[in-house]
4-amino-4-deoxy-L-arabinose-phosphoundecaprenol flippase subunit ArnE
Amino acid sequence: MKDGLSSFQILVLIGYALGMVAGQMLFKLAALRLPVEATTGTRLVALLGNGWFVAALVLYGALSVMWVWVLTFTPLARAYPFVALAFAVTPLVAGLVFAEPLSLRLLVGIAVIAAGLVLVAG
């Protein structure tokens, strides 16, 4: 295998990371629908009937299968840094969708992650 990742590998890894972002958005939607003043037990029971939570679990299950497939043709050491893309994109999406704060420090950190991915993808 050549040193750099192919365009196909990069696209699949970006898709995987974006799937993780979507899963985090689903988990946030699930959290927003939990009873705030409830006991831990009540909250756990509420999760079982929470469609957003169930959807997140299904998505993460599918992503786990996808990850194993990706590792059949991509070295783990080259694939795993793309998980960091989810760390960069999730706060941006959360800022847009949930109006969560985006500080300059966070944005600089996201730029550093992106620069690292460019180096890894080669």
